[in-house]
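Because discrete structure vocabularies remain unfamiliar, we turn briefly to a single example record, giving the amino acid sequence and backbone structure tokens:
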Amino acid sequence: MAKRGFNQYMSRHYRYFIIGGLFIVLLVVLIIVWSRSSKRRAEEEENASTIPELETTVEVPKDRYEENAYQDVNSLVSSYLGAMSTGDTETMASLSSSLSDDMKAFYEAQAKYVGNYTNFNVYTKAGPADNSYFLLATYDLLISGQSTPLPALISLYVCRNDSGALYINSESLTADEEAYILELVAQKDFAELINDVELEYNSALESDASLAAAANALKDEINKDAQEILVAKQQKDLEDAAEAEAQAQAEAQAASASQVKCTSENVNIRASASTEAESLGKTKAGDIYTRYEKMENGWSKIDYNGKEAYIKSDFLEPVEDKSSDSSSSENKESSVSKKKPGDKITVKENVNVRKSASETGEKISTAYRGEQFELVELTNGWCKIKYKGEEAFVKADYVE
């Protein structure tokens, strides 16, 4: 049971542990304690694992680590740690397969208190995937306001993408990969390296009381600032999402907008669709408005001086498209050209019913989509129809 708990802890946290002004995490203590107890239980091979053998279908090599052996790996680590030292999480994300918002917030907060990363050394072993590396990187850092550097250590799993470029793999691992990496970390040479860095770290703190106090206070300060950064980001994300939604609604509203004309004097323009709502102004007959929506409750949402407002739909009529009126009568009549006197025609879009075949003709009423009328005559882009027992006219391009 103890072994399982240790392995689970390692598999969750191995890629994030750092020794230095940031953490001395439980992980490091566990590695050292397990290593010492294992040595007492049995004699190991020169570089065998310091924990009992882990279950993996991939053979784990026993070779000693290589120090600064691969220029491209060192370059990647240097760039990654350089970005970490300044809190440049965008660059860090570009060098890795993923970087969560939580980790971004942590690194941004950390950079406020520590920096000046120097003295890089990279210790690599072959990773579980083809052409991959698992590595420990050691370096020195300075806590703000201190002059004594602290040793630090980070573990990274480096892979190659399809084009052969290196990247830091921070995705979830398979069971085989986890077991493989856990055994590498527990091998004698890596365990000794971790132990050496911890000893150097403790020695630096023991020799400088001010540094020890700063290091002890650092974790709480970083966590506090990281939480504030994360909350601020989440708030901004919510605001951006709300702005994007409002923009999308505005675009959709604009796409469905149409021009309408007021038919009466002194009609109240209101702040909401209610006769009890505040009056924002009054109309003049013939005023043109942009209508965003004709509502089922008898009101229309319009633009009034750049703001949304409401007016009773009964006092509005569509502004007919004059550019459409200038088209040839043949095109106008095409949808009803096969109709004969006495046939039924159907309104396909709300249209004004007039006493004469002219846009200036007196308006009798509005014919709504779906209504049917008897065709009397079709001429010059107008349909003469039977309307409530009388002859009237509607534009031909609004019926079929």
